[in-house]
Design goal:
Helices cover 35% and strands 15% of the residues. The protein has 15 helices and 14 strands. Helix 2 packs parallel to helix 3.
Length: 392
């Protein structure tokens, strides 16, 4: 039996179904515990980027073993940077528990450092599963990049037995820090493919009715799902849509999400008299499938700081062609240009509009997205976890 302890900042809608699946399946031979560093999001919270109150409508606190630890930070919040989470209780927890595999999700908080050092001191196998892409390093201040690399190579990674890259760009970053492939085990980023694919099958043949209910009958729909914030560059998509309309006047653009750029988007929509651009506001997990079901192409046009982009995984479960910027962390893994979509240079609106046009013209196969996403599943994650050796 493999004992695995995940260190998470807070319950995350993409991770919890994995923990439930591991706990549910006795065949996985994994005894799982999750240690959470804050409970500030459990009862719902005001998401600063969505600009609205968020409470996930899938079960987040049942079906697996977890514990919340007290946060001793003088400015306690997962939004307050490195010192926003300081959980000294990790030391006692890791000292008392049987020898286990400790997996820290990244190194964004002081508590991640506490967990890694304490885990090693008390004889556990220590792993880090971050998702920082190598392609984003060029945008960091040179001094900060130097200090960060020094901290990772000479301090943090000295206490780590295995690194668990989530994709190609993440692996490339570790290689650039001198980490050998033998010290890495692939544990890909994934969403609950089974749930989304069931929703896809259940909605088969209902897309016409869904389009009618949303006032989008007969339209070719370009879909964006995410926060309306600067790093995701939704204004680039609106500009590209203006060019797409020249050759595809029967297309519509659907922004599923909310955020600080909503007012600016609405002003641009009004100024340009776009009649088929819609902003839904925040949509919860139980309702998101209807938007993927009716789409013809999914777009993520983010810049640096988009370390992965899990809504791309979601969209691929609905057999959608994908258009992704080259700085979207998952682009190298999930999008093969000319096959299941296109990767375009971030910020290049002309290339973005061309890629969308090619997808609407049927030059790529959305089924290829569905085929490709099978390698980025909870099952693949579990196989990676089971491959972690215990290192005493």
């Amino acid at each position: 039996m493999q004992r695995i302890v995940f260190i998470n900042s807070h319950p995350i809608q993409y991770f919890v179904p994995l923990y439930q699946q591991i706990t549910r399946s006795k065949a996985e031979s994994i005894e799982l515990t999750v240690l959470y560093l804050t409970d500030e999001t459990v009862a719902g919270y005001h998401d600063q980027q969505f600009g609205s109150r968020v409470q996930w409508d899938i079960p987040m606190m049942e079906g697996y073993r977890y514990k919340f630890l007290k946060n001793y930070s003088w400015k306690p919040s997962l939004y307050n940077g490195f010192f926003g989470l300081i959980n000294w209780g990790l030391i006692g927890e890791l000292r008392r528990m049987p020898k286990s595999i400790i997996i820290s999700h990244g190194w964004s908080y002081a508590s991640n450092l506490i967990a890694v050092i304490a885990g090693k001191v008390f004889g556990h196998t220590v792993c880090i599963r971050g998702d920082n892409p190598h392609s984003h390093e060029q945008f960091k201040n040179s001094f900060k990049r130097f200090i960060s690399r020094l901290f990772l190579r000479l301090i943090l990674f000295k206490f780590v037995d295995k690194l668990l890259p989530v994709g190609r760009q993440n692996r490339k970053l570790y290689r650039s820090l001198g980490i050998s492939d033998s010290s890495m085990i692939f544990v890909p980023h994934a969403v609950d493919n089974a749930r989304f694919q069931k929703q896809y099958l259940d909605s088969s043949g209902e897309d016409t009715a869904i389009r009618e209910s949303l006032g989008l009958s007969g339209k070719q729909i370009i879909l964006y799902v995410g926060k309306l914030i600067n790093k995701k560059r939704p204004l680039d998509l609106l500009s590209a849509y203006k060019q797409v309309l020249i050759t595809h006047p029967n297309s519509a653009l659907l922004f599923v999400g909310d955020g600080i750029l909503r007012a600016q988007l609405e002003e641009e929509i009004s100024t340009n008299e776009f009649h088929d651009v819609h902003i839904t506001g925040f949509v919860n997990q139980s309702q998101i499938a209807q938007y993927y079901t009716i789409a013809n192409v999914f777009v993520m046009c983010s810049q640096q700081e988009e370390t992965w982009g899990l809504s791309v995984n979601e969209a691929m479960n609905f057999a959608l062609p994908i258009v992704a910027s080259d700085l979207t962390g998952c682009a190298d893994d999930l999008v093969e240009s000319g096959v299941n979509g296109y990767v375009f240079p971030t910020g290049d609106v002309a290339s973005l509009s061309e890629a969308i046009t090619h997808c609407l013209d049927g030059r790529v196969n959305g089924q290829a997205s569905l085929d490709r996403i099978h390698s980025y599943s909870y099952e693949a994650m579990i196989q990676g976890l089971k491959a972690i050796p215990f290192i005493s």
